Amino acid sequence: MLERGEIANSWRRERWDSLRLLTPKWLTRLPGFGYRGTDPDGYMSVGDVVEFIEGFASSSKAPVRTNTGVTSVRYEDREYRVTTSDGEMRCATLVIASGACNLPAVPRLSESIPTSIVQVTPFEYRNPSQLPDGGVLVVGASATGVQLAAEIHASGRPVTLAVGEHVRLPRTYGGRDILWWMQASGIWDEPYDQIDDLSRARRLPSPQLAGTPERTTLDLNALADMGIELVGRLAAVREGRALFSGGLRHLFSLADLKMERLLDRFDEWARAAGVDAGDPERFPPTRIPASPRLQLDLRSGAIRTVVWATGFRPDYRWLEVPVLDEKGMLRHEGGVVESPGLYALGLPVLRRRKSTFIHGIEDDARDVIGHLVRQLASAARRSGA
Known about the structure:
Layout: H1 9-13, E1 20-24, E2 29-30, E3 33-34, E4 43-45, H2 46-59, E5 70-76, E6 79-84, E7 87-91, E8 94-96, E9 103-104, E10 118-120, E11 135-139, H3 143-154, E12 159-162, E13 172-173, E14 176-177, H4 178-184, H5 198-203, H6 220-226, E15 229-231, E16 234-238, E17 241-244, H7 248-273, E18 295-297, E19 303-308, E20 312-313, E21 332-333, E22 336-337, E23 342-344, H8 361-383
Parallel strand pairs: 8-23, 10-19, 11-12, 11-19, 12-15
Antiparallel strand pairs: 1-4, 2-3, 5-6, 6-7, 9-20, 13-14, 16-17, 17-18, 21-22
């Protein structure tokens, strides 16, 4: 196992100070290793996650080579040649487990932002104190965007949040964490080959959730109540002016509708399973600002910082095997990549809806490694070994 830095490197180096997992501690588990503390309904901090992963690596005696960066992978003579910072390795099979969040997905229009404005991504952001005084434009309203908008606003800075497609969820439903419902109802276990629009499912933004001790819901209504200004999707930057889409009504309605449908599924499951969840809860629709602004002069000095909470993307610059599509994503069928003996783990909806969550890796790994073992056994039989 090759790790470019220390164990849990991305959690050590690429997370903001106050970040907590979206999943409760009881749901944070790896094969044979789970949370054993006294606060199962809480949410792990960055330090907790580092400690958790270190503990799993130690207990499983994982053969991790730390500080070993991979610079290239080539397929030659029916084997993979892996060039690392510590020399070359050769192997018949290779599992890519580098994840889907290696680089921030910053749009090209960032190049048009006036140079007087500081631009940061979630990889660089640590806390509000590193930002200049003055207004902040947060672009993106998924989990990262809503959390950073709330934190920065609490520091006393005016915040404008540019909202695109998003997934709205309450933190709790029927007295239980919303992710308990996802787990118990079986939705998270839905297999990839039974999802109608798999490509879209793999592109969905993370839900608007935060792991606070109070288990509060952090949706757009909550942000508006704080005094955060909501605007539409950032569509362009022209002559120093940020131009926003006028489609907030449609975006809000779509997110509300999808949340209602999901809650309906929970209610149907609870009735069929005999789970007492009380009367079905429903939540007020997302409020549309009376007159959402359509543009913002970035040269006026009102905005001093832009935070790009626009998602992440994998980094395959080291992969010299022709297995990427036109968007630079790995072509695979449930983790089996289009090259002999090449596999992937840790990608969105790899084999189930829960694939990118920590607890989702175990079932995926069993399936993918099962395929790998069968392929090795078949190759051995063919060679007479």
